[in-house]
Amino acid sequence: MPDPLDLAFAALADPTRRRILAILLEDDMAVTDVAAPFPVSLAAISKHLAILTRAGLVSQERRGRVVWCKLEPDALRAASVWMQGFGQFDAVELDQFERFLAAERLLPPEKDEAP
Hints:
alpha+beta; 56% helix
């Protein structure tokens, strides 16, 4: 059986699937509503949803004739916890780093002061 973390990262590797997750952040939706903003067929979106469902990122439920999709945040939480393990390094704030470098270039070189 594949590792759930592997399934989650494989599912997240596709930009269409990431957009689907972003759409489902708003609310549960019917498959047809999820597919509406995409310029691909309903069958293609259904395949993406199947991958997301297999990864545990989305659940699907049939209500009458309509299949509803729901975001399942626990699978994302596991991936997030794994990534936080690499958080020992502070993120570089690029604008602040650029200001620091500019300031360093403007300062005159330090002189050794002799007593």
